[in-house]
Amino acid sequence: MKRILLSIPHMSGAETAYVQQAFDSNWLSTAGPNLSAFEVEFGNYVGLPAVALASGTAAIHLGLRLLGVGQGDKVFCSTLTFAASANPIRYLGADPVFVDSNYETWNMDPSLVAEALRRSASGKLPKAVVVVDLYGQCADLEPIREICGQYGVPILEDAAEALGANYRGKPAGTLGDVGVFSFNGNKIITTTGGGMLVSARAAWVNKARFWSQQARDPGLAYQHSEIGYNYSMSNVLAGIGRGQLAILDLRVRQRRAIAFRYRRAFEDLPGIKPMPQASYGLHTNWLSCFLVEETEFGVSRDALIATLDDANVESRPVWKPMHLQPLYRDCECYGGSVAADLFRKGICLPSSSSLSLEDQLRVINAVRMLVGASPLNQLADAECAP
Ligand SMILES: *Cc1c(COP(=O)(O)O)cnc(C)c1O
User: Fold this and answer.
1) How far is the centre of ligand 1, averaged over its atoms, from the C-alpha of 87 (Å)?
2) In the chain, is it the N or the C terminus that has fewer CB atoms within a 10 Å radius of its CB?
């Protein structure tokens, strides 16, 4: 039986024509027509100016620099996330301060941000707040924006996992002062590797582009007044991005359908609960996540992962929170017990948009049979619930 993986690339077929154009025109470089077109098309999709970069991590690095983060600064960051949300804080010599999630969204708890800012106001306010949109769902950004606005602290929205989601009708990644996306191979659409930075301030996007191209001053000489990076996206990969972006909304529907099939299939099982879908927006369900309550479910989360692995199904725990990482052990953290609990009980199941009904049934029945429930005969190819 072939292995079912967590989240794999899913090409539409249209990508190769753009890649071929890059070869035909010899634009095999970090400049070229695919690159400019991808930035324009992506900018149109989210409604903001955009610069294509080598990775989402590079985009966070440049985004934090745009917000003025430097040596010795504090930066608030969601603790329940992938390490790439926090590492660029360190690249800039700043110190992360982590903020816990709430159970309603699994994302940064607005009331904890308020408390953290209130307590920092007497000493040193953070230079920025990195708000992560986890697993395809936006954080509750309105109250976070409100409170950050009161203290004049800018927001970097890490929407690496949430491209295609929205918050009160606004695209994920457009609710902060800077927004960041990833096209890593396991994300909802991919360029094999890549990222995008967006901002309502076109001058900031241009500045990020300048830094991403080694920050060379205008003129003939290779003169440099600022530190730059080699962070551009390749014109070949931008071609893949163009083909992928065209079918993003379909990929969102497919990922949501997968998540809601799991939800229905586990409804009668005690002790396995889906990640909540907040009412304020559209959750892409980039990954289908569940909480396993060992006492009710009868099996621990880790035993479930092991059983799936034996059935040749890849699954993984919810992110290990940053405040529990050896790397960030000494950092301040507001709260932390919710993220720790979600990490302990949370599992991510195979969620590829290309996952067939047959393969999903295999995953579902491996879970059901482990706890002695009857296997399902088939899955309905229904569109997802509202
Ligand atoms: C994937 C991811 C990133 C990093 O993106 P890359 O393109 O892999 O560098 C950043 N933040 C989060 C939350 C991610 O999931």
Assistant:
1) 11
2) C
Q: Say yes or no: CB of residue 57 within 6 Å of ligand 1.
A: yes
- Give the CATH number, domain containing residue 347: 3.90.1150.10
| 346 close to ligand 1 (CB < 6 Angstrom) | no
How far apart (Å, rounded) are the C-alpha atoms in residues 70 and 26? 39
Residue of the nearest CA to atom 8 in ligand 1? 184
Q: Which residue has the tokens 């025109």?
A: 25
Ligand 1 neighbour 319 (Cβ under 6 A): no
Identify the domain containing residue 47 by its residue range: 15-245
My answer on whether 167 and 71 are in the same domain is yes
Asked, for residue 386, whether it belongs to a domain, the answer is no
What does the pLDDT read at residue 381? 72
At residue 181, the pLDDT reads 99
**Of 215, 230, 245, the domain-final residue:** 245
pLDDT in tens, 142-165: 999 999 999 999 999 999 999 999
Closest residue to atom 6 of ligand 1, CA basis? 56
Task: Assess whether the C-beta atom of 160 lies below 6 angstroms from ligand 1.
Answer: yes
Same domain, 89 and 220: yes
How many angstroms is it from 182 CA to the middle of ligand 1? 6
Question: Tens digits of per-residue pLDDT, 331-363?
Answer: 999 999 999 999 999 999 999 999 999 999 999
Does the C-beta of 82 come closer than 6 Å to ligand 1?
A: yes
Q: Is 215 in the same domain as 259?
A: no
Instruction: Find the CATH number of the domain harbouring 198.
Output: 3.40.640.10
**Which of residues 222, 245, 268 is at a domain's end?**
245
Percent of the chain with pLDDT strictly greater than 90: 97
Spacing, Cα 7 to ligand 1 middle (Å): 14
Pair 161, 141 in one domain: yes
Q: Is residue 154 located within the same domain as residue 51?
A: yes
Specify the pTM: 0.98
Average pLDDT over residues 27-35: 97
